[in-house]
Structures are given as C-alpha cells and as structure tokens.
Amino acid sequence: MAGEVIVDALPYIDQGYDDPGVREAALAMVEEECRRYRPTKNYLENTGPELSTAFETPALQREMERVQQRLPMEPLSMKRYELPPPPAGRLGEPTAWSEAVDNSHAQLSHQATRVLNLELQLHYGTEAWRSYLNVLQALVSRSQNEHTQLRKQIATVNWERKRSQTASGARLRALRRRWAQLVSDNYRLERAIMHLEIQLEKAKGQTAAEDGEGADMEAVKLLPDKLNSETEKEVQKKIEDMFAD
User: What are the φ/ψ torsions at residue 16 (nearest 5 degrees)?
Assistant: First the structure.
C-alpha cells in the first residue's frame, strides 16, 4: 500500500541492544554506507540557489565588498557638526554669509533637539525602560509557557508510544508463545506419526512372517520400539528457551 509505514523496531520492549557485538555491527553498517557514498565537490548543488542575498541591503552589499577587498573603513564624518565660514573667494558675498548663518541655525536647532531628547529621557526614561522590561518579561513568560506545553506534548506522545508498544509487546509475546506451542504440538504429532509408522512396519513384518511370505525379519527387528532422538520435554524446553521473553 502506498504510503504505508512498516514499524520494525519497538524500542520500549525490544531487547538485546547492549548485547556483545550489536554496537560493532551497527558501526560496521555505518562504515559500509560511508564507503558506498560518493561525495561531490558541491554536495549542495541539488538544493537550488542560495538565499543568503535575499536580505542584503545595498549598504550591506557595499560593506561586504569593502571587507572582501580588504579596504579600510571610512572614518566617521564630523562635517555635520562643523560651522565653516564662507570660502576665501566668497568672503565679500552676502549670499555666502547667509548660507553660513543658515547652517549655524540648523546646527543649533539640532543640538537643541538633542538636549530636549536628553531631558525627556531623564524624566521618562526610567518608566519607559521599566515598561520595556515588563514587555520582555511577558514575552519570556509566554515563551516559557509554550516551552512547558511542548514538553508536556512530547511527554504525552512518548507515554502514548510506550503504552502502545507495551500493549503490542504483550500481544507479541502471547503470539510468540502460541507459535512455540504450535511448533511443539507439530513436533509431538510428527513423533506420534513416526511411532505409528514404526509400529505399522513391525505389524506388516510379523504378518508376512506368519503367512510365510519370507519377510526380512532382521530388518523388522532393527526397527526401534521408540524414537531415540530428543525427548518431548527436551524439545519443549529448547523451544521455550529459544522464544523466551
């Protein structure tokens, strides 16, 4: 059946993993797989193009190119904080001085904004930071709750798997004992048939001798009264030992 999953391992009831030679056999299988594996120069060639550049911005790309070319980092520009006078060739132009004054006004406005931000942070920064920490704590609590729920789900899945495998193990052991019993019954039935065949051969030999047909009495005498192989108890014990839990 398409999509059917065949379970050939029940770790909660299987035994023998710690037996001598099991680990060596598993390692030998791994080594054999490694010998049959033929690596290529690019083992990711079948995974498609890389997606690492999907989130690169132009600024990040320029920085990566700079690092690859081993160029020094550009120094921090302080031009925005400077108040340069008009160029030497434009000292007599009112327009140049007007531009310089406008630049100084912009710098002063920027510094005033920075001072205002610092004052706001001085007054409200503590509460803002406390609120931010509360948000982080709520995120941590939610993540811990999700983690706890996931661990509970994992424990439930493992418990259900163990319960199912334990129940299956009991059924498998019962079926194994039933199979061993049937094998033993078949063996006893086969022995009984062999006993009957021997008795039948003896009866045929004796009948032929009485009728004077010249039967081979020596061959009939050589037939045993019972089979000299293993006794039924010994066979039963061997079967039980072979299929013991």
Answer: 100, 0
